[in-house]
Amino acid sequence: MYTREEFENLINNSPLFDIDKDSSPMLYKTEKYNLLTLITDYYRFYIYCNKPLDSYSMTLMETAAECIKYYDREKSQFLSLFNMVMKRKLHIDKAKELIDAYRQGIKLSNYDSRLISKITAYAKSKGLDLNDKSVQYKVAEVLEIDLEEVKRLVCVNADAVTVHSTVKNDDGEEIELYDYQSDSVKLFDVQLAEEESIDELVGKIDNVFSSIQSRQKKMISMLLTAEIIKALNYDIEKAEKILRKRQLFDIEIFEYFLQNNELPTAKQIGTICKVSEQSLSRAYKNFKEKLKSVKSIKNQFYILSVAKE
Fold first, then answer.
1. What is the Cα–Cα distance from 289 to 287, expressed in whole angstroms?
2. Shortest CA distance to 288 belongs to which of 188, 185, 194, 183?
3. Residue 178's pLDDT band (boundaries 50, 70, 90)?
């Protein structure tokens, strides 16, 4: 068996990262299997040696698949990325279990759960206290939710779960349930550099958008508008301020979110644009390649397509 250092070296320097998936599919598949085996054994023997594999194997496989797909070796070593995302996902899973336990048998509808997540996410992003009546009024105004509905949901949430409760996960680390309740986890959605404002970054994306073919602009603008709304933690007020002046802004996505409290799926966007999900995915993939060619953008963020690739 390898030492911990040997495992880490083998994982970070896997031949997989130098193989072109399209030109060498069988070799890519083989090396991917080898890498997954290494990661699994590494976690079994050195990270979670006291946990049964089946308690986290599904999360491990899902995390590995995502990290392999979107890994950029210019940003970090693979294992650093994997460990960060794996830990975050396990925390989320555990927090969800704990939130259910703290609900004391109170069941919330999917509609109420989505609205509560939206309300708490907005409040946290602004550092607001939802028990303050003036804050409730502001939330109702910004998110365009009836004030009485906001009051009801704040009360329901307070009765159902102690959102400020800090508990410990299986590793003995403290978890702030509020962080997960507020739906602020971003993982791969859009990662923004601290040294440059969101507005400037969106401006650069908009410049690339202006250069694409007219027939592709509708679908790309819908996808980009959805991604930027997610990146801003569903802060509609901020999203509108940034997007309104951009060519890439799609009002239809914006109105859909306000009416349904969620963003449309890739399939729904494809239907609106009268194209298949495959065509939508190809177009978005090509656009992301254009973004990657712009160095000032490439070094600041990467986008997880809402369309399946």
1. 5
2. 188
3. very low
Strand pairing class (174-176; 166-168): antiparallel
Angle, nearest 10°, between helix axes 214-231 and 266-273? 150
CA angle 3, 4, 5 (to 5 degrees): 90
CA–CA distance, 245 with 268 (Å, rounded to integer): 25
Token pair of 134, please? 């003036």
The answer to whether 280 and 269 have CB atoms below 8 angstroms apart is yes
10 Å Cβ neighbour count for 124?
Answer: 18
H/E stretch holding 149 reads helix 147-160
3-class SS string, 181-199:
HCCCCCCCCECCCCCCCHH
Residue 194, both tokens:
């601290």
71-80, 102-111, 145-154, 205-214 — which is least confidently predicted?
A: 102-111
Report the distance separating Cα 187 and Cα 85, nearest Å. 7
At 32-56, the pLDDT tens digits run: 999 999 999 999 999 998 889 988 8
Scored b (16 or more CB within 10 A) or e, 278-292 reads eebbebbeebbeebe
